[in-house]
Specification:
Layout: E1 3-7, H1 17-23, H2 38-46, E2 50-55, E3 58-67, E4 81-89, H3 98-112, E5 117-123, H4 127-135, E6 139-146, E7 149-157
Parallel strand pairs: 4-5
Antiparallel strand pairs: 1-2, 2-3, 3-4, 5-7, 6-7
Amino acid sequence: MQYIIEKVTKSEKKEILPIYISSIGEEGCTWDEEYPNMKTIEDDINSEGLYCLKINNSIVGIATLIKEKNIYDEFKEFKNACLLTRVGIDKKYQGKGYAKILLKSILENAIKQKIDLIYLLVNKNNIKAKKLYNFFNFEFCRIVNEHGREWELLIKQLFYKGE
């Protein structure tokens, strides 16, 4: 099947929310009817960090890569760390390898942008997501308590000192 991965545009924002909604209720998914929402989507588009995977010109997968200040002390040495968040594949397309395709492309793009570290928070009960991140060699860093939940903080170092 032919696919394309690109940044989501403002004109496509209404196609994103149904993908988030399709994952609500799945084991380990922490999303609900209030989050993520249209404001979240608009903020991600405005930050130019919302990527999509399209099949036959329809968006079937999304992920956000946010360049932000390092909020965790252990990442202070990294100059260009990014948060990977809100990775989702439409329920109809799950289990077909599309999350791997999307994440591989995002990682390749991050390397081109000289991002030196990607970190993310994953629900410890989200087995599918943890398998995906493990496939790409994300490493467990520590447990984090945020947003009223306990999360696993995972990291992937893309560049090492001297590179």
